[in-house]
Design goal:
Its cofactor is pyridoxal 5'-phosphate. It comes from Paraburkholderia acidisoli. This protein has 271 residues and is α/β, with parallel strands linked by helices. It has one domain: TIM Barrel. Helix 4 links the parallel strand 3 and strand 4. It is globular. It binds pyridoxal-5'-phosphate.
Amino acid sequence: MNADNAHPNTVTRHDQHGRWPQAASIDDFRRNLATVQARIEAACARVGRDSRDVRLLPVSKTKPEASLRLAYAAGCRMLGENRPQEAHRKWEALGDLTDLRWSVIGHLQTNKAKLVAQCAAEFQALDSLRVAEALERRLQTEGRALDVFVQVNTSGEASKYGLAPGDVAAFLRALSAFPALRVRGLMTLAMLSADSARVRQCFVRLRELRERLRNEAPAGITLDELSMGMSGDYEIAIEEGATVVRVGQAIFGARSTPDSAYWPVAHDAPI
Ligand SMILES: *Cc1c(COP(=O)(O)O)cnc(C)c1O
Protein backbone atom coordinates (compact mmCIF):
# COMPACT_ATOMS: atom_id res chain seq x y z
CA MET A 1 0.00 0.00 0.00
CA ASN A 2 2.50 2.56 -1.04
CA ALA A 3 2.91 4.68 -4.13
CA ASP A 4 5.33 2.17 -5.67
CA ASN A 5 3.38 -1.06 -5.54
CA ALA A 6 -0.18 0.27 -5.56
CA HIS A 7 -1.92 1.68 -8.56
CA PRO A 8 -0.50 4.92 -9.82
CA ASN A 9 -2.87 4.82 -12.77
CA THR A 10 -6.11 4.80 -10.81
CA VAL A 11 -7.67 7.92 -12.28
CA THR A 12 -9.31 10.77 -10.46
CA ARG A 13 -12.72 11.75 -11.70
CA HIS A 14 -12.28 15.40 -10.94
CA ASP A 15 -12.73 16.13 -14.62
CA GLN A 16 -16.26 14.77 -14.40
CA HIS A 17 -17.43 17.13 -11.69
CA GLY A 18 -20.79 18.49 -12.70
CA ARG A 19 -21.74 15.33 -14.58
CA TRP A 20 -23.21 13.30 -11.75
CA PRO A 21 -26.94 12.80 -12.46
CA GLN A 22 -29.36 13.97 -9.75
CA ALA A 23 -30.68 11.21 -7.51
CA ALA A 24 -34.45 11.73 -7.54
CA SER A 25 -35.88 8.49 -6.13
CA ILE A 26 -35.12 5.89 -3.50
CA ASP A 27 -34.04 3.58 -6.33
CA ASP A 28 -31.60 6.19 -7.64
CA PHE A 29 -30.04 6.42 -4.18
CA ARG A 30 -29.94 2.63 -3.84
CA ARG A 31 -28.24 2.31 -7.20
CA ASN A 32 -25.69 5.05 -6.51
CA LEU A 33 -24.89 3.66 -3.06
CA ALA A 34 -24.44 0.18 -4.55
CA THR A 35 -22.16 1.54 -7.29
CA VAL A 36 -19.98 3.41 -4.82
CA GLN A 37 -19.91 0.42 -2.47
CA ALA A 38 -18.84 -1.86 -5.33
CA ARG A 39 -16.02 0.54 -6.22
CA ILE A 40 -14.97 0.64 -2.55
CA GLU A 41 -14.84 -3.14 -2.55
CA ALA A 42 -12.83 -3.25 -5.79
CA ALA A 43 -10.34 -0.70 -4.45
CA CYS A 44 -9.97 -2.72 -1.24
CA ALA A 45 -9.43 -5.91 -3.23
CA ARG A 46 -6.64 -4.28 -5.24
CA VAL A 47 -4.61 -3.66 -2.10
CA GLY A 48 -5.70 -6.60 0.02
CA ARG A 49 -7.88 -4.66 2.45
CA ASP A 50 -11.14 -5.74 4.09
CA SER A 51 -13.94 -3.47 2.83
CA ARG A 52 -15.58 -3.62 6.25
CA ASP A 53 -12.74 -1.37 7.39
CA VAL A 54 -13.97 1.44 5.12
CA ARG A 55 -16.98 3.53 6.12
CA LEU A 56 -18.90 5.38 3.42
CA LEU A 57 -20.09 8.77 4.69
CA PRO A 58 -22.68 10.24 2.29
CA VAL A 59 -22.34 14.04 2.06
CA SER A 60 -25.62 15.91 1.65
CA LYS A 61 -24.51 19.56 1.61
CA THR A 62 -26.63 21.95 -0.54
CA LYS A 63 -29.22 19.20 -1.11
CA PRO A 64 -32.83 19.79 -0.01
CA GLU A 65 -34.60 18.01 2.83
CA ALA A 66 -36.65 15.86 0.41
CA SER A 67 -33.47 14.50 -1.11
CA LEU A 68 -32.06 13.66 2.32
CA ARG A 69 -35.25 11.77 3.16
CA LEU A 70 -34.80 9.64 0.03
CA ALA A 71 -31.21 8.90 1.06
CA TYR A 72 -32.47 7.87 4.50
CA ALA A 73 -35.09 5.61 2.93
CA ALA A 74 -32.32 4.02 0.85
CA GLY A 75 -30.47 3.17 4.07
CA CYS A 76 -28.24 6.14 4.99
CA ARG A 77 -28.02 6.60 8.76
CA MET A 78 -25.28 9.21 8.95
CA LEU A 79 -24.96 12.27 6.71
CA GLY A 80 -22.05 14.66 6.28
CA GLU A 81 -22.57 18.43 6.08
CA ASN A 82 -19.87 21.02 5.51
CA ARG A 83 -21.48 24.02 7.19
CA PRO A 84 -22.56 24.07 10.84
CA GLN A 85 -25.69 26.18 10.25
CA GLU A 86 -26.88 23.96 7.43
CA ALA A 87 -26.20 20.83 9.50
CA HIS A 88 -28.16 22.26 12.42
CA ARG A 89 -31.06 23.36 10.25
CA LYS A 90 -31.34 19.92 8.63
CA TRP A 91 -30.94 18.17 11.99
CA GLU A 92 -33.99 20.09 13.22
CA ALA A 93 -36.00 19.55 10.03
CA LEU A 94 -35.32 15.80 10.02
CA GLY A 95 -35.72 15.38 13.77
CA ASP A 96 -38.41 12.74 13.23
CA LEU A 97 -35.71 10.37 11.85
CA THR A 98 -34.42 9.57 15.31
CA ASP A 99 -31.61 7.22 14.24
CA LEU A 100 -30.14 9.62 11.66
CA ARG A 101 -26.79 11.01 12.83
CA TRP A 102 -24.76 13.96 11.58
CA SER A 103 -21.11 14.48 10.79
CA VAL A 104 -19.90 18.06 10.37
CA ILE A 105 -16.95 17.95 7.96
CA GLY A 106 -16.25 21.64 7.30
CA HIS A 107 -14.45 24.52 8.96
CA LEU A 108 -15.90 25.71 12.28
CA GLN A 109 -15.67 29.11 13.92
CA THR A 110 -15.87 29.33 17.70
CA ASN A 111 -19.17 31.25 17.57
CA LYS A 112 -20.80 28.24 15.83
CA ALA A 113 -19.48 25.65 18.29
CA LYS A 114 -22.85 25.47 20.02
CA LEU A 115 -24.57 24.31 16.83
CA VAL A 116 -22.12 21.45 16.37
CA ALA A 117 -22.25 20.50 20.05
CA GLN A 118 -26.02 20.20 19.76
CA CYS A 119 -26.52 18.38 16.50
CA ALA A 120 -23.38 16.47 15.52
CA ALA A 121 -22.20 12.98 16.46
CA GLU A 122 -18.89 13.61 14.73
CA PHE A 123 -16.77 16.61 13.74
CA GLN A 124 -14.06 16.02 11.17
CA ALA A 125 -12.42 19.43 10.75
CA LEU A 126 -10.81 20.21 14.11
CA ASP A 127 -7.73 22.36 13.52
CA SER A 128 -7.41 24.85 16.37
CA LEU A 129 -7.31 24.85 20.17
CA ARG A 130 -9.72 27.75 20.28
CA VAL A 131 -12.34 25.64 18.53
CA ALA A 132 -11.50 22.66 20.77
CA GLU A 133 -12.04 24.84 23.86
CA ALA A 134 -15.32 26.23 22.55
CA LEU A 135 -16.60 22.76 21.65
CA GLU A 136 -15.56 21.31 25.01
CA ARG A 137 -17.40 24.05 26.89
CA ARG A 138 -20.59 23.63 24.82
CA LEU A 139 -20.45 19.84 25.00
CA GLN A 140 -20.13 19.97 28.80
CA THR A 141 -23.25 22.17 28.87
CA GLU A 142 -25.13 19.74 26.63
CA GLY A 143 -23.84 16.72 28.56
CA ARG A 144 -22.57 15.21 25.33
CA ALA A 145 -19.34 13.90 23.83
CA LEU A 146 -18.21 14.21 20.21
CA ASP A 147 -16.04 12.05 17.97
CA VAL A 148 -13.44 14.31 16.32
CA PHE A 149 -10.91 14.10 13.52
CA VAL A 150 -7.97 16.46 13.30
CA GLN A 151 -7.83 18.10 9.88
CA VAL A 152 -4.39 18.15 8.28
CA ASN A 153 -3.31 20.23 5.30
CA THR A 154 -1.50 17.65 3.17
CA SER A 155 -1.47 19.65 -0.07
CA GLY A 156 0.74 22.44 1.21
CA GLU A 157 -1.63 25.04 -0.21
CA ALA A 158 -1.30 28.06 2.06
CA SER A 159 -4.96 28.98 1.93
CA LYS A 160 -6.36 25.57 2.88
CA TYR A 161 -7.78 24.72 6.27
CA GLY A 162 -6.06 22.20 8.49
CA LEU A 163 -2.89 21.96 10.54
CA ALA A 164 0.54 21.67 8.98
CA PRO A 165 1.67 18.04 9.40
CA GLY A 166 4.49 19.13 11.70
CA ASP A 167 2.05 20.76 14.14
CA VAL A 168 -0.20 17.75 14.67
CA ALA A 169 1.81 15.96 17.41
CA ALA A 170 1.73 18.94 19.77
CA PHE A 171 -1.93 19.57 18.94
CA LEU A 172 -2.85 15.99 19.89
CA ARG A 173 -1.02 16.33 23.20
CA ALA A 174 -3.01 19.47 23.96
CA LEU A 175 -6.30 17.75 23.04
CA SER A 176 -5.97 15.30 25.90
CA ALA A 177 -7.15 18.15 28.15
CA PHE A 178 -10.62 18.02 26.53
CA PRO A 179 -12.50 14.92 27.76
CA ALA A 180 -15.65 15.55 25.70
CA LEU A 181 -13.63 15.36 22.48
CA ARG A 182 -12.95 11.75 21.50
CA VAL A 183 -10.13 11.86 18.99
CA ARG A 184 -10.64 9.18 16.33
CA GLY A 185 -8.05 10.03 13.71
CA LEU A 186 -6.98 12.40 10.97
CA MET A 187 -8.84 13.97 8.06
CA THR A 188 -7.62 15.64 4.89
CA LEU A 189 -8.76 17.09 1.59
CA ALA A 190 -6.43 16.17 -1.24
CA MET A 191 -5.39 18.65 -3.83
CA LEU A 192 -8.27 18.91 -6.31
CA SER A 193 -6.36 17.89 -9.40
CA ALA A 194 -6.75 15.64 -12.43
CA ASP A 195 -3.16 14.51 -11.81
CA SER A 196 -3.73 11.34 -9.79
CA ALA A 197 -0.08 11.16 -8.67
CA ARG A 198 -0.39 14.51 -6.89
CA VAL A 199 -3.70 13.54 -5.32
CA ARG A 200 -2.25 10.21 -4.16
CA GLN A 201 0.70 12.00 -2.58
CA CYS A 202 -1.65 13.89 -0.24
CA PHE A 203 -3.19 10.61 0.95
CA VAL A 204 0.22 8.98 1.39
CA ARG A 205 1.29 11.96 3.50
CA LEU A 206 -1.70 11.59 5.83
CA ARG A 207 -1.15 7.84 6.24
CA GLU A 208 2.56 8.25 6.96
CA LEU A 209 1.84 11.00 9.46
CA ARG A 210 -0.63 8.71 11.23
CA GLU A 211 1.96 5.90 11.40
CA ARG A 212 4.51 8.25 12.98
CA LEU A 213 2.05 9.74 15.45
CA ARG A 214 0.58 6.43 16.54
CA ASN A 215 3.74 5.54 18.41
CA GLU A 216 3.86 8.75 20.38
CA ALA A 217 0.14 9.51 20.80
CA PRO A 218 -0.92 10.41 24.36
CA ALA A 219 -2.74 7.75 26.37
CA GLY A 220 -6.42 7.59 25.50
CA ILE A 221 -5.94 8.92 21.99
CA THR A 222 -6.23 6.33 19.26
CA LEU A 223 -5.57 7.30 15.70
CA ASP A 224 -7.40 4.48 14.00
CA GLU A 225 -9.26 6.53 11.45
CA LEU A 226 -8.11 8.18 8.24
CA SER A 227 -10.89 10.26 6.63
CA MET A 228 -9.81 10.95 3.08
CA GLY A 229 -11.31 10.71 -0.38
CA MET A 230 -14.42 12.18 -2.01
CA SER A 231 -16.42 11.49 -5.19
CA GLY A 232 -13.49 12.22 -7.49
CA ASP A 233 -10.74 10.40 -5.63
CA TYR A 234 -12.07 7.97 -3.01
CA GLU A 235 -10.69 4.90 -4.76
CA ILE A 236 -7.16 6.30 -4.61
CA ALA A 237 -7.71 7.22 -0.95
CA ILE A 238 -8.78 3.65 -0.16
CA GLU A 239 -5.69 2.25 -1.89
CA GLU A 240 -3.69 4.46 0.47
CA GLY A 241 -5.50 3.46 3.65
CA ALA A 242 -8.70 5.55 4.04
CA THR A 243 -11.08 4.21 6.70
CA VAL A 244 -13.74 6.88 6.00
CA VAL A 245 -14.58 8.25 2.55
CA ARG A 246 -16.79 11.34 2.27
CA VAL A 247 -18.85 11.02 -0.90
CA GLY A 248 -21.44 13.58 -1.97
CA GLN A 249 -22.01 14.02 -5.68
CA ALA A 250 -21.59 10.36 -6.67
CA ILE A 251 -24.55 9.59 -4.37
CA PHE A 252 -26.73 12.71 -4.41
CA GLY A 253 -25.89 14.10 -7.84
CA ALA A 254 -23.90 17.13 -8.90
CA ARG A 255 -24.00 20.32 -6.86
CA SER A 256 -24.56 23.67 -8.50
CA THR A 257 -22.36 25.34 -5.86
CA PRO A 258 -18.72 25.02 -6.92
CA ASP A 259 -16.22 23.52 -4.47
CA SER A 260 -14.44 26.87 -4.32
CA ALA A 261 -17.34 28.03 -2.13
CA TYR A 262 -16.12 25.56 0.51
CA TRP A 263 -12.36 25.57 0.17
CA PRO A 264 -9.78 27.13 -2.14
CA VAL A 265 -9.22 25.14 -5.32
CA ALA A 266 -5.71 24.34 -6.58
CA HIS A 267 -4.55 26.31 -9.57
CA ASP A 268 -4.11 23.31 -11.81
CA ALA A 269 -7.66 22.07 -11.26
CA PRO A 270 -9.36 21.61 -14.61
CA ILE A 271 -12.75 22.94 -13.54
C1 LIG B 1 -18.49 18.36 -0.07
C2 LIG B 1 -17.41 17.67 0.66
C3 LIG B 1 -17.04 16.35 0.34
C4 LIG B 1 -17.71 15.54 -0.74
O1 LIG B 1 -17.43 16.05 -2.01
P1 LIG B 1 -18.08 15.35 -3.30
O2 LIG B 1 -17.34 15.89 -4.45
O3 LIG B 1 -19.50 15.76 -3.30
O4 LIG B 1 -17.94 13.89 -3.11
C5 LIG B 1 -16.01 15.78 1.06
N1 LIG B 1 -15.38 16.45 2.05
C6 LIG B 1 -15.71 17.70 2.39
C7 LIG B 1 -14.98 18.39 3.49
C8 LIG B 1 -16.75 18.36 1.72
O5 LIG B 1 -17.08 19.60 2.06
